[in-house]
Amino acid sequence: MSNVPRQAGVSGKVNSFAITGDVRTPSSADTVKVAWSRSNFRASGWSEADFLKPIVTVAAPYSNNMPCNNQFKDLAELIGAALEARGCKPHFAFTPVISDGLTQGTRFMRYSLVSRDAICDAIEIMHEGYKADAIITLGGCDKSVGGVVMPLARKDMIGLSLFGGPALPGLAPARRDYSHSLYTHDHSSALCTLTAIACTLTATAPPGQAGLPRG
User: Fold this and answer.
1) What CATH number does the domain containing 108 carry?
2) pLDDT bucket at 178, cuts 50 / 70 / 90
3) Closest among 188, 191, 153, 149 to 170, alpha carbons compared
4) Neighbouring C-alpha atoms within 13 Å toward the C-beta of 118
């Protein structure tokens, strides 16, 4: 079996002709009217060959300070490189993300539940606004899993959603005395914190992710 990635080809490019035009017919009205779009794409590093490639949105809720999602930028770039190797043009869309674990017990947790719809809306804006042909989304924990799946169902997009993976368990220090100070307790908790990528908590996020229609 050949290890050469199968190329997507122009046949996979459908929606995005509306924003790039078809450079094979440079004098057609639809191609001429988006000449300004192509000039902006060229300024972003596109080559002439890129205008015939399908545009694939790679959407990921990302924050460098949230362990459930702090590797998504790297994962998105890996996906983008794989898409490039297959003849597609990746279109990155990084969205806001709020962690229950970081905000619990504070008034800032009120941003967590609404962030699911904010993630969904942000992905829809970035995908539809660039007339992309397909989409791949990454979900971590809390509201991001539901948030990255919702736009696919809502807009009937061609695409798939991938889970970022579960975190490995942390290591707690061997200790029998639990009467130590609050500072020591906080330090011990930090030592046994889960590693990066999503925790296995089943709380307010999963119930909102089970209401997607089948078929």
Assistant:
1) 3.40.50.2300
2) very low
3) 191
4) 12
**Cα angle 82, 146, 164; round to 5:** 40
Q: Are 88 and 8 contacting, i.e. CB atoms less than 8 angstroms apart?
A: yes
* Residue 166 forms part of a structural domain: yes
* Count of domains observed in the chain: 1
pLDDT of residue 66: 84
Residue-wise over 168-198: b if at least 16 C-beta within 10 A, else e? eeeeeeeeeeeeeeeeeeeeeeeeeebebbb
DSSP string covering 141-189, please?
STTHHHHHHHHHHHTT-SEEEEE--BPPP--PPP-----S-HHHHHHHH
> Is 74 part of a structural domain of the chain?
yes
Encode pLDDT of 89-145 as tens digits.
999 999 999 988 788 889 988 998 899 999 999 999 999 999 999 999 999 877 899
Number of residues that make up the chain? 215
Domain that holds residue 77: 54-206
Tokens 């004098």 found at? 27
Q: Are 173 and 197 in contact (CB under 8 A)?
A: no
Q: Report the interhelical angle of 110-129 vs 144-154 (nearest 10°).
A: 40
Mean pLDDT to the nearest integer, 27-51: 96
Enumerate the β-bridge partners of residue 92.
Answer: 58
Q: In the numeric block, which tokens belong to residue 178?
A: 């639990």
Q: Is residue 197 part of a domain?
A: yes
Residue 48 falls within a domain, yes or no? no
